[in-house]
User: What shape does this take?
Amino acid sequence: MAYTGQTKKKADLTLLMSHETKPRKYKSKFERTVGDLLGTRASYEPDKLKFIQPSKQRLYIPDFKIGESTYIESKGKWTAEDRAKHVWIKEQHPDKRIILLFQNAKVRLSKVSKTTYGDWATKNGLEWYDWKDGLPEDIIKITDDNQPSGRNPRRGRRNSSKPK
Assistant: This one.
């Protein structure tokens, strides 16, 4: 295809081989080059092969530890990778309580999805709360019980360098 100087047109990567009933739709120019070389001696992407991705050991660092085995994970954006990770963590650490605290649990997973963060978490058995609604008292109590006496974790610290 010739370059006109004003717009670049995408190369047509479709090719119909004589022995095939559907045109080949190549994903790249290089695939088309190889296909041209092989011609009728090869079929393009005729099969689908299933495989299992080998497991990979990973580390997860929860945002906040509020009890012996209770954690809070604060989530603004919740990607597909994050969602899969939390399902695996729940399966592999049933003795840990991981609480998802969404900045906004009503955000949809994507522009085209009707499923919200909260809906997805519920469907997958994950404990979650919406920041706008706050944390339940039983969770606040866990944080209170783990603080040194005399300090309320819900009140801010006073900076001692400032004049009173």
User: Anything to note?
Assistant: Helices lie at 29-38, 80-92, 117-123, 137-145. The chain has a mean pLDDT of 79. The chain has four helices and six strands.
